[in-house]
């Protein structure tokens, strides 16, 4: 299946999946909203658990479906996808495998989960640079470049092709955090050594469903020292003592999945596959463009960009006050107002926000 091609009427499907959402949530960069199919799957799982009939086989099927769905969405083989629970934990797996003295290049203002695992190792050399200068700052001593595809604070999109080329020229590995990008921005994990995406934002999944891709040539760079029984080739056949045989591919780096988040992720990913990344991107960027144009007409300067994350740096205090009074939900990272429309958002949400500020 082509994950970039819509397979059904886009707006009708969104209307059905988000019929019960209270208008005004323009805060996907903090947390996405689950579609109806995801809420229903979670309710079924909770009800059976509460009734004393937890569906363990169903949980396992959902975990497999989530892994497969994520792989299809980003266009890699499912064997390249490991399960994680947090971005910091997955980055930490990479950080722990680096040799002492290795140089890591990262963006100076990136999300802490991408940077802190490297900063937490005193024997690594962490070098920080402006986002626009990352590719130019790669040097022969660089062992790894780590960067978010889209920045959490302001939505700026990294020049990933330039970073990849610069890293390849010196033999450095690459780590890309897709948490603020995958779902609306096409990213090919096959082009990078490691990619990590937590699903609770643009994949509209629950907290705790996180995915790590490991390129085949990069497997030997990681240690299975953190592997548990779930990373075994046959997890249920060897739950005691040392794991006799680790799973092939990236699955050997699996963290034991929390079942309910992956039950939700399987359902949410099925919606994104039904919609197609290209259609989601067009929807999100059209709403963001409408918002940026409207803000500019009101004399409110927002950062330019081709991202559904719209940032108003250091706005007047009446901006968040009026948005709140109008029922618009947003966030305020780094002394800014951040608005981020996604699947559940409509033109009416954008117009409500703009009318509140006019």
TrEMBL record:
Q: Which UniProt keywords apply?
A: Lyase
Alphabetized InterPro entries for the sequence: Aminotrans_V_dom, PyrdxlP-dep_Trfase, PyrdxlP-dep_Trfase_major, PyrdxlP-dep_Trfase_small
One Gene Ontology molecular-function label: lyase activity
A Pfam family that the UniProt record links to this protein: Aminotran_5
Indicate yes or no for the key word Lyase: yes
**What SUPFAM superfamilies is this protein classified in?**
PLP-dependent transferases
Domain (Aminotransferase class V): give its ranges: 126-300
Can you tell which superkingdom this protein's organism belongs to?
Answer: Bacteria
Task: Output this protein's name.
Answer: Selenocysteine lyase/Cysteine desulfurase
At the highest ranks, the source species' classification is: Bacteria, Bacillati, Actinomycetota, Actinomycetes, Kitasatosporales
